[in-house]
Amino acid sequence: MKLVILSALAGLALTVPVAHAQEARQQTVTVTASQIDVDDLRSAPAIYSVIPADFVLVEVNFQSGSRDAEEREQELKASYDRLIAKAAATNGFELSGGDIGETSAPIESVKFTDVFSLYGNRASFTLTLSVDVAAGETFDDVMARANDFLDSVRPEGRAEAYLGSEQFIGARNMGTRRDALLANIIASVEQLQSQMGAGKVTVSGLESRVITQPSGPLVLEIFIPYEMSAEWTAAN
Q1: 130 neighbors 55 (Cβ within 8 angstroms)
Q2: Are the C-beta atoms of 171 and 29 separated by less than 8 Å?
Q3: Which of 30, 90, 104, 179 is positioned for an S-S bond with 170, CB 3.0–4.6 A?
Q4: Cα–Cα distance between 44 and 53 in angstroms, integer?
Q5: CA–CA separation, 83 vs 146, rounded Å?
Q6: Residues 65, 121 contacting (CB under 8 angstroms)
Q7: Cα 22 from chain centroid?
Q8: Are 86 and 179 in contact (CB under 8 A)?
């Protein structure tokens, strides 16, 4: 999408046909917090924001090596129920199904049989744990609380539990954050016209989704990948 904004003398009109329904479904974003490849990061345009992460995601894995297959399943089912109950009773912790960082299913819609798997003489299940970031916490602080939470869930029988090696950080309320980015882009256009005398300002790419990427252990850089150009009319 390309917007052409004429001289401020003719007034400023900036209409952005954002897919609001789509944004409403994507109010939460997550990006990897580990194994970051610098080559995958994109250069931000002039208007961007740096925001703190609202939560950290990490996999919770339970496995059992009991000899009897039925016993393995029973141990893990009991552990699963304890984990679900513990998360429901603990503020700032939430469980979900799906593949971490890619898909997410509310835990209310996840059945034990959906996540239970058998391989050889072992069985396991995996869920995603979301841990809210408290004010002043470091990444290590959040992960220490995640470990403490898991330690408080007693696995049944010979089952054991551990956290996954990959973590993701995320932010909520992305619709509001997108609106703020758009407002800042509009302000930049107005400045080019009113203070610098640009006769025409062209902005493209505003229909793009917000790009979110890590810029620190608990910090996200967000921006709309727009392009802007300005033209000045020669004085008569």
Answers
A1: yes
A2: yes
A3: 30
A4: 18
A5: 12
A6: yes
A7: 16
A8: no
The CA distance from 65 to 120, in Å, is 9
Q: What is the pLDDT of residue 95?
A: 97
- Domains of the chain: residue spans and CATH: 2-51+172-231 (no CATH), 55-170 (3.30.70.600)
Cβ 15 vs Cβ 182: under 8 Å:
no
Residue keyed to tokens 């407002």: 183
Report the predicted TM-score, pTM, of the whole model to 2 decimal places: 0.79
Distance separating alpha carbons of residues 100 and 38, to the nearest angstrom: 21
Element (H, E) at 22: helix 20-25
Q: Match 């990959």 to its residue by tokens.
A: 166
Q: What is the pLDDT of residue 194?
A: 87
What 3-state DSSP class applies to 99?
A: coil
Backbone conformation region of residue 103, classed left if phi is above 0, alpha if psi is from -120 to 50, else beta: beta
Does an H or E element contain 23, and which? helix 20-25
Taking a C-beta distance cutoff of 8 angstroms, is the pair 96, 106 a contact? yes
Looking at residue 33, its pLDDT comes to 56
Q: Tell which phi-psi region holds residue 218, choosing left (phi > 0), alpha (psi between -120 and 50) or beta.
A: alpha
What pLDDT, in 10s, does the model give residues 179-204? 999 999 999 999 988 888 888 889 99
Which residues sit opposite 61 in a β-bridge?
126, 162
CB atoms within 10 A of CB 234: 5
Judge contact between 59 and 163, C-beta under 8 A. yes
Per the DSSP assignment, residues forming a β-bridge with 169 are 31, 56
